[in-house]
Amino acid sequence: MLKEPYSPKSYSYHSKYIDNRLALRPPQKESLERFARIVDILSLSKTPDLAEELRKIRELFPKLTSFERDFPSVCFALATGIGKTRLMGAMIAYLHYEKGVRNFFVMAPNLTIYKKLKNDLGNPDNEKYVFRGLDKFVAVPWIIDGDNYTEFRQASLFDDNVTINVFNISKLNSESGRMRRLQEVLGQSYFSYLQSLPDLCIFMDESHHFHADRGFDTINELHPILGVELTATPQIQKGTRKIDFKNVVYEYSLAHALNDGLYVKVPAVFTRRDFRSEEYTPQQLDREKLNDGIRLHEETKSRLDIYARTHGKPIVKPFVLVVAKDTNHSREIREYLTSDAFFRGYYKDKVLEINSAQRGSEKDENIERLLSLELASNVIEIVIHVNMLKEGWDVTNLYTIIPLRASASETLTEQTIGRGLRLPYGQRTGVDEIDRLSIVSHDRYQAIVDLARDPNSLVRKVYYIEEQNIPENDEERETVYLPTVYDTVTSGENFTQQLVFTLLETATDEYKTGKKLDQTQRIASVVQSTTAQTVVEVNRQVRSINAINDEYTRKFVHSSIVSQVIRQLPELDIKEEDLAAVVDVAIETCAQALTENVIPIPQSVIQPHTEVKRGFYDFSLETRNMNWHPSDDTLLGTELQEGGETFTLETDKVAFAKVDTVDNEIVRHIIVHDNVDYANCSNLIYSLIADAKRHFLSYLSDEEAEKVMRDRQRTIAEIIYAQMNEHFYKEEVSYKAANMRPFTRIEPSFGGKFKTDEIYDLRTPMVASDVKSKIFSGFRKAGHTLYKFHSDTERTFAVVLENDNAVLRWLRPAPRQFNIYWGPGGVSRYEPDFIVETVSKIYMCEPKASNKMRDADVLEKQIAAEEYCRAASEFNADNGGKPWKYLLISHDEIRPQSSFSYLAKQASQKQLPID
């Protein structure tokens, strides 16, 4: 099924048992088989050797090149409709049966999936309960969630039940601080309790959400022994680029499922024959699509009824999904669908609107109605949504999707059509209307068909992740953790031995006679890790790098660490007085390490903000190229799969009439443009429309002119707008900073190198082209102990910073250190190359090739970065900090003998203002 050189071992007893009891489909079965192999070869340790674990798995699955986490994590990419939740249940069961694992943490990307997972994993009355039939799950798993975790009292520790923590990612982010607070019933915070579990395994549903979310960091902090990621799309979008996952071990794509012809509906896109969508207003086009979509819906409803009665099957009630542009658009659509103008009010009580603007009981009630759409008692036949139902909504009776005002690429995605791919009877029936998912897209029909024909499209690309090329001479690459100075100091052997010495020097006689050296080593190690983690967490919560130096805070931290150490080592019977001195030493060491070579970087989000100036001069319309003459309601459909057929469907009903004048319809097309202010431009627009009408009446009758203007209304509007745009228009883009917050920590990073390569000293002579693939050490002033450089010029700049006495400290920030966004929509994150601190100022530095200094993207990043520096300087002025300045430094100026002050002066003089 895969192209990888993978040969499975024979299925284990537990694998076979779970497969048989859960009736797994072949893709699920093969996934479980691969999962069993992975679990068998991993150490499942809280402190794994990631490089060794990666090597072992790559021997079986060469496509996997990185775990992309701080723990072993593998991804299974299965198309929507194949059954990822059931596979998750099978994997949880396998870990419990085979390895005795009892503690699981399941991440959900949104509220819908969160509720569904709690029901599927913990409600045996639910038809889709995933553990039904498994003897070790007769006792239902404990479900701890974002709503009840504060009441958890470790009841599950006294029986053999599996405990499954289910959290929504937004809930985890918002509750993270609260979860880290001490709970009296646990004797520690709930977060610390999770961290302490020796067998915690994490499952990430729709895991493409977690690669870019700040919850990524929180997941790493839980220190699980294993991560399992499930998604239909093993890619993340970064700006205009799609970045493949690096930890995929199994793929079964939608194209694969369509080719197999077993598990999913066939998606087909519909339009109306000879339909000219460009001549309709957006509102008219919406209504045409809704009208034709309901035609398809009623036809499908009849076919399902006939099939069910003929074959003795349960009757399936289909429904329509309408995808709206925004909440205002959604409200407008709902008002129309529930009006008497739409099929005489038949659907008045059959429409459900759900969007992110809904709150409280309204939202909860709508989600409950949404999740019960398959029930015969649910009367809803049309669901309108705005960006709410992209994943996790696994109904089987969605048959018609009407995407309004969406592009072809937005429509042909697994998140959009994936909602309707599941089959109500579990397999195809042979009846086209029952095995088909209809997508109504008059305006994007041909674009969608063309996109579907692309070999790389969703419906034709069988494998997303290709096997990575091995570098020349077969050297493997590895990912190296680039620690901060704090990480290096607090995890080092010297620190451990210092704590051992302190324990032996200060402990009571009773301790010295009762504890062996290896036990002392163990105590010191636990004190070390607990203190390092607690000190960072306190600074994060208080949002101050100096929080640990506060007397009251230090007493609280001291007490918390002592309690945690005693609780983690109950068998050693440690007394509080035995730990007093060693914990003091540990806190002081961590406090000093926390501020060593640290540049305080205030936190803020920088995003684009657009200000528009506009205006038009009066003019007469040029009509010499508008010599048109006046011009069947058959639907045309095309299957979106390889070799898909094209077919027709007759319609004869219209749900609404045109009620506005053609002049007003043309005006609507024009005023949708951002630079057209109706209040200021209406007289000009109507005069230009009058010019067009006079032109048509010069050679057509009144009726013919009316028809031409109505049929060509969008084209006329475009001509008018284009001629208007030959006059005055201006747009300026600026950036705004959100409220500044105090600095909390320097983020660690990761870098890749050849596995056989050593770590090189910063000043090691080497060919310039080799620098990019190496990792360097030997820094005295840097915020991390290891770094990678994109070029030899960057490495030279680092040498300059190390040599120059005017430089106090410097940093190559990790990708997540700054939240500076730029580009269209503000989706691209800017990652500065260097941060440099001197006695009087902090600099954000960007070395750049001289021929790229005026590139558009470089200049836009400069604007965003300068806005950060402005906001940070203002913040520091009020809080006793240093001003910030942005420097764009030409590569040509950077030489080993340069001083930083010279480079800063040259950059300031040559840095041109942004036009």
Task: Describe this structure as you would to a colleague.
With 915 residues, the chain is α/β, with parallel strands linked by helices. It is built from 28 helices and 31 strands. The chain has an eight-stranded mixed β-sheet with strand order 14-15-13-16-17-12-20-21, with helices on both faces. A seven-stranded parallel β-sheet has the order 3-4-2-7-8-1-11. A four-stranded mixed β-sheet has the order 22-19-27-28. Strand 7, helix 8 and strand 8 (226-231) form a beta-alpha-beta unit. Helix 1 runs antiparallel to helix 4. 40% of the residues are buried. Mean pLDDT is 80; it is low at 1-10, 469-475 and 651-659.
Q: Largest sheet, described in full?
A: 8 strands, mixed
Mean pLDDT: 80
The unreliable regions are: 1-10, 469-475, 651-659
Beta-strand content bin:
15-25%
Rounded to an integer in angstroms, the radius of gyration calculated over CA atoms is: 32 Å
Terminus-to-terminus distance: 56 Å
Percent of residues in helices comes to 25-40%
Structural class: alpha/beta
Please work out how many helical segments DSSP would assign. Answer: 28
In which order are the strands of the major sheet placed? 14-15-13-16-17-12-20-21
Global morphology: globular
Number of strands: 31
Give keywords.
915 residues; alpha/beta; 8-stranded mixed β-sheet; 7-stranded parallel β-sheet; 28 helices; disordered N terminus
Summarize this, please?
The chain contains 28 helices and 31 strands.
Topology summary:
Layout: H1 13-22, H2 26-41, H3 50-60, E1 73-78, H4 84-99, E2 103-108, H5 111-122, E3 142-145, E4 163-168, H6 169-179, E5 182-183, E6 188-189, H7 190-196, E7 201-205, H8 215-221, E8 226-231, E9 235-238, E10 241-244, E11 248-252, H9 254-260, E12 266-272, H10 282-311, E13 319-323, H11 327-337, E14 351-355, H12 360-371, E15 382-386, E16 398-403, H13 408-411, H14 414-417, E17 436-440, H15 445-453, E18 477-482, H16 485-490, H17 493-506, H18 509-514, H19 517-542, H20 551-568, H21 576-595, E19 605-614, E20 635-639, E21 646-649, H22 662-671, H23 678-697, H24 702-711, H25 713-724, E22 729-737, E23 749-754, E24 760-761, E25 776-777, H26 792-803, E26 807-811, E27 819-822, E28 828-830, E29 834-838, E30 842-848, H27 856-878, E31 884-890, H28 900-910
Parallel strand pairs: 1-8, 1-11, 2-4, 2-7, 3-4, 7-8, 12-17, 13-15, 13-16, 14-15, 16-17, 19-27, 24-25, 30-31
Antiparallel strand pairs: 5-6, 9-10, 12-20, 18-23, 19-22, 20-21, 26-29, 27-28, 29-30
Helix pairs in contact: 1-4, 2-4, 17-19, 17-21, 19-20, 19-21, 20-21, 22-23, 22-25
